[in-house]
Design a protein that fits this description.
Blueprint lengths: L1 E4 L3 E5 L10 E5 L6 H11 L2 H4 L7 E5 L5 H6 L7 E5 L10 H6 L3 H18 L2 E2 L11 E2 L15 H5 L5 H9 L17 H12 L9 H15 L1 E3 L6 E3 L6 H6 L8 H10 L10 H5 L2 H8 L1
Antiparallel strand pairs: 1-2, 2-3, 3-5, 4-5, 6-7, 8-9
Helix pairs in contact: 5-7, 8-9
Length: 296
Amino acid sequence: MEALKSPTVFKAQVLSDPGIKSASVVVKTEPNLEKICLRREWNNYKIPAIASSQYIRGLCDVISPNGEHRAVEADPEADSIYLVFEWMDQSLRTVPPFAFRDNADLPKVISKAVLSALALLSQLNAVHTVKAGDFGNMLSQGYNKIRAQSLPTRAPEVWQGLGCFHSSDVWSFGVTSPIFGAKDKIVETLTEAWCIAKIRRLVGPIGPPISNRDYEEEFLIAEYLESSTFEHPDTGLETPFIKVGSLREELEKLPGPKISSELLDFIGFLLVVDHGERPTASEALQHHYLTSLEAS
């Protein structure tokens, strides 16, 4: 047993199980109140379409202290359960950024897999909110009790407080750095206002937020950050808070192998600010950038 994220995620060796092809698995548990997410994940894997999808990590087993799945399911106060998932040999985070640009097909293969998973979730009227490999936070489309998604991948409509939709998942994928081989996040994990200002500069204005004092203040600060300067303490020069240009300009400036114009067009196709006009995952799968993979 090897701790991957102690005390909740572990890598374990499979000693003998003909139903598990890999020599290793991932064992996941959650302490205390967080176990509600683990149970939600387990329940979501009971949905046949999720359990059978080739684009979603497989759930191999469920383990409880007494070995009785049914008893654990019936007892919401059970101390612990353990979900056993298939082991993925490669994490995108460990792939060198340049590899995505050296291999023209790699971003296409990744895009097809992720968008296929998102298309399935759309059929279930669900959004994953965090990542396609973690269904402990999967919610119904339109969820707006709190703003879902991580700060770097949060969609404009989620920032506005309108809710998290299938289109929000598409945005989240479009700004994920591995698709184009960037080392750093497009939108850094700083303050909420900074993230909003960065999005405004990269892709254009975002509509106003819902009537919420905190959201309104964030948008006002974001507008100030985007358009204002400060006196740099080292140089004494007036320096913009937000220095970046458009998203395409920034991606074209990345060091190393150039990003293909076809991929840049595809990213622009995904990142439409108006979520009502943004393509669905199924529509994105029909984009010529991805259909060219099948033709090659």
